[in-house]
Amino acid sequence: MTQPVPPRTSAHKPYLDAIRATLQAAFCIENFESQVVERHNKPEVEVKSSKQLLLNPVTISRNQNERILIEGSVNSVRISIGVKQADDLEKILCKRLMRFMMQRADDFHILRRKPIPEYDISFLITNFHAETMYKHRLVDFIIYFLEEIDKEISEMKLAEDGIFKFHPSLMAVSYLGFMFQAINIFSVDNTSRSSSISKRKQILIHSLFQVGSIICSIIAFTAIYLRKEQGNKSHFTSWHGLIGLTVFIWSLLQSTGGLLLTILQRYIRSLGLTHAKLRIYHATSGVLLFTMSCFVIVLGLASNWFKTKMPDGKIIYSGIFYLLTSKTIVGASSGMATEIINHMKSFPSGYLVAYLISLNFYQHFVDFLEEEEARTTCSRCIAEFDAGKLPI
Known about the structure:
Blueprint: H1 13-26, H2 44-47, E1 58-61, E2 67-72, E3 76-82, H3 88-103, E4 121-126, H4 127-132, H5 135-161, H6 166-184, H7 199-230, H8 239-263, H9 265-270, H10 275-301, H11 304-309, H12 314-325, H13 327-330, H14 338-345, H15 351-356, H16 359-386
Antiparallel strand pairs: 1-2, 2-3, 3-4
Helix pairs in contact: 1-5, 3-5, 6-7, 6-10, 7-8, 8-10, 10-12
Keywords: Actin-binding, Cytoplasm, Cytoskeleton, Electron transport, Membrane, Transmembrane, Transmembrane helix, Transport
Protein name: Cytochrome b561 domain-containing protein
Family: Belongs to the ARPC4 family.
């Protein structure tokens, strides 16, 4: 309540001036005891016991989506705000922000827990609030809220459409593009690969694909990290973030191990280690790494950002899971890992995969992710509120 009101922009000035003048007139409220029950004082704007105690409601509209409804009475004022929502992304951001605020309505004394229909948020100010708070500061707060809520949603939207967009695209290119081709170059079932390619050329092509994968993943990881820093948000708070960090570090170690395996062959032999066995370990680790990377991508498909861009993602879920367990991917490993791959090749024909590619599994899986995401978001928002980082 003690924060100074920032200067208003010229575009909003007439709209905010009209709201300020109306609120100053509507805040002429006083104590009014109930005429039905002795020593009871109810907000007449809510109970509406008599039309004589109510003032005519005033709607101030800047456009079709941005408006405010001010309902006055003898002892209370109800203020309902419709926030500007130009597209689906702004609607989702506004809904999440309002849901967070309403969960804290017990601490936010003038906030109405449930908004009026067709409006996004409502405030209820009674004569008790007017007796303990300065009326002009209440008016300043409403004006400040109107300015900041629009600014906050705009900044959140810019964050969603800014540097963050490089994260999902480059991660998909890194793992589903470069890493897949790097593994597939050694596939014994790869009919697109010419049989005249020597083993040395295969290793060179594999290395080039892996370099491209590492470069894309580093850029994508940097993009999401910078975006979190710009928004002052915690890092690695979701399953997607935690497992994604594990896969990212794993991929760096995997590439380092493959590089050392290639350039230190003589030193490995001098240590008494079998080069063929180390290649089997490297190939098996690569297949498991690719499997985990596909799982991380599926976790990303359940995020709110992806739902905003593609509301019906069941086909994408099916494609990713089928790609994850398909015979092409399972067979895309070094020929020296034949025993392990033969066991894995039987996996796609089992009943488990038939269940994985069913829509019922995806529905349960996405519901679980949404519940976990809601818990994480709620806990993070409460921590930010307690730390004084409330966006208003």
